[in-house]
Design a protein that fits this description.
Layout (H helix, E strand, L loop, with lengths): L5 E7 L6 H10 L4 E8 L5 H7 L6 E6 L5 H11 L4 E4 L11 H9 L5 E5 L11 H18 L11 E4 H6 L9 H11 L4 E5 L15 H16 L2
Parallel strand pairs: 1-2, 1-4, 2-3, 5-7
Antiparallel strand pairs: 4-6, 5-6
Helix pairs in contact: 5-8, 7-8
Length: 230
């Protein structure tokens, strides 16, 4: 790992209760890394926390003047990434940075270009919403039908991929369409894709969960759109 540098891309929107804890967990993982932190127009005090990290060693901090969406925040962060391998990390404590090694293994041993961390391959997870689970299965199945992949969790946050993959992609989505767009484009380019099991500490809406049924409807449109037009 001494010769491999990670870029951890963290889009943030209104996560003042979790952000410092998450960043401490990312800092603690024992890899050479840069942390690219993108505040997407937060209004709850998160922006001020993000600004505290500006200028700190190992951090790149970006600020959106207004909320543009997760995809826009990721595109801003990815444009600044300098690492050999990129990992997408949410700021809400649902995903555990201690599992980076699981994501990296298929890339580091030469099997994979892209790795998805699946919440549905047997890892421990908080038992929560049936309808969210069913919606995820529908979206993943529809995505698989259009990409000819056999993913179990297309919508997962945890995606790791090489610099070669990043440099080959032109991403356009501003909001939650990032997931089907990314999947469609890496499938079309025939990159080697792996899944690994991860744990998942899901939260409910009282704890700050943001994605809802409207985002699911939008995801269906994006799956169809990128199948037809890419």
């Amino acid at each position: 790992m001494a010769t491999v540098k990670l870029s951890i891309i963290i889009p943030v929107y209104n996560e003042q209760n979790t952000l410092r804890t998450l960043l401490a967990r990312v800092e603690a993982v024992d890899y050479e890394k840069e942390i690219v932190l993108v505040d997407d127009g937060s209004t709850d005090g998160t922006r001020e926390i993000v600004q505290d990290y500006q200028g700190q060693d190992g951090y790149t901090v970006l600020i959106h003047a207004k909320n543009l969406g997760k995809g826009a925040a990721l595109r801003s962060g990815l444009a600044e990434a300098k690492g050999d391998i990129i990992i997408i990390q949410d700021a809400d404590l649902e995903y555990d940075p201690r599992e980076y090694g699981n994501l990296l293994e298929p890339i580091l041993d030469g099997r994979a270009d892209v790795v998805y961390g699946s919440r549905f391959l047997g890892g421990p997870h908080r038992v929560m919403f049936f309808w969210h689970y069913l919606g995820n299965m529908v979206l993943t199945t529809l995505s698989n039908m259009t990409t000819n992949l056999n993913l179990t969790d297309m919508e997962t946050c945890y995606k790791a991929f090489t610099r070669k993959v990043l440099d080959s992609l032109t991403l356009k989505c501003n909001r939650f369409g990032f997931e089907p767009e990314f999947t469609s484009k890496v499938a079309r380019k025939n990159f080697r894709i792996y899944e690994v099991p991860i744990s998942y500490s899901g939260r409910d809406y009282t704890e700050g969960k943001k994605i809802g049924w409207k985002d699911g409807i939008a995801a269906i449109w994006f799956i169809i759109r990128f199948r037809l037009f890419n």
